[in-house]
Specification:
Pfam families: MbnP. This is Copper-binding protein MbnP-like domain-containing protein. With 264 residues, this protein is α+β, with helices and mostly antiparallel strands. 20% of the residues lie in helices and 41% in strands. The protein contains five helices and 16 strands. The chain is globular and about 65 Å long. The protein starts with a helix and ends with a strand. The relative contact order is 0.18.
Length: 264
């Protein structure tokens, strides 16, 4: 009899927990909330600071006066594998270090996110060919934003996906010009890259909460990432070249990681 009562108690407990979980999920239906993504640029384990000299491979060093890049196509995946792509018209941003707050962070606030438990975030670096194929008028307000931010060569050529301007030095030169303006070249050279990052803990988007995802971008990996490049061997001026730009694009793809998550 005791064993029977114990079995019944366990069954009731599991039933209540299951109903409670179902109620929790059902209670999220129709709810929407905001999500803040914080981009934090650094160099290895250091904070990035304009005008500071940073060392890299091949006995070279660099300092920057401009650091900005385009993020687009932000997509979230929940615990069930369901994906949510932020609305296309608003799903493109310029992360400009000059706009960073006192903590060195550039905030992107996504509004109207379906309430869910999200476990993954993905995004593109640059402008994909489908968006580019919409033509100049199809870019909406972003075309003017890109022009104002000097992230557009010309419409026929396309966008700069990342812009790093400064100087470099090595054993033979000092303060030589450094300009990394990697992007696609119309439809002839596609340097758009997608990044997918697992979240270290679940992001709980709710109607009355605004969680934050803190993404670190290690700028040193632009030069010493998947491939190490040398400024003196053609990588001090990267613009539309079909050899150098894809290498920089692949390096940029690997510079992001989720550092931590705040569920507020």
């Amino acid at each position: 009899m005791k064993l029977f009562k114990f079995f019944i108690a366990i069954l009731l407990c599991n039933t209540i927990m299951s109903c409670s979980n179902d109620d929790d999920m059902e209670s999220l239906d129709g709810q929407f909330g905001n999500l803040v993504i914080k981009f934090d640029n650094g160099v290895e384990d250091q904070d990035f600071i304009f005008g500071v000299n940073y060392s890299k491979s091949a006995n070279e060093s660099y300092q920057l006066e401009t650091l900005k890049y385009i993020i687009s196509n932000i997509e979230l995946t929940d615990a069930d594998g369901t994906t949510f792509m932020y609305p296309t018209d608003d799903n493109v941003f310029i992360v400009n270090e000059a706009d960073a707050n006192n903590a060195g962070e550039i905030w992107i606030t996504l509004e109207g996110i379906p309430a869910a438990d999200y476990t993954k975030i993905s995004f593109g670096v640059g402008i994909d060919q489908e968006r580019y194929g919409l033509g100049a008028e199809g870019q909406g307000d972003f075309l003017q934003t890109a022009q104002d931010e000097e992230m557009l060569w010309s419409w026929a050529t396309g966008f700069r996906f990342i812009r790093l301007d400064g100087v470099y030095s090595d054993n033979s030169v000092t303060d030589e010009a450094l300009n990394i303006h990697m992007g696609s070249v119309g439809t002839s050279l596609d340097n758009y890259r997608e990044v997918s990052l697992d979240l270290p803990n679940t992001v709980l988007v709710r109607e009355m909460a605004e969680p934050e995802v803190h993404i670190k971008a290690d700028i040193s990996l632009v030069f010493d990432g998947q491939t190490s490049v040398t400024f003196s061997e053609g990588y001090s001026q990267v613009h539309t070249d079909e050899t150098t730009t894809p290498i920089i694009a692949d390096n940029v793809m690997g510079m992001f990681e989720v550092h931590h998550v705040h569920n507020n």
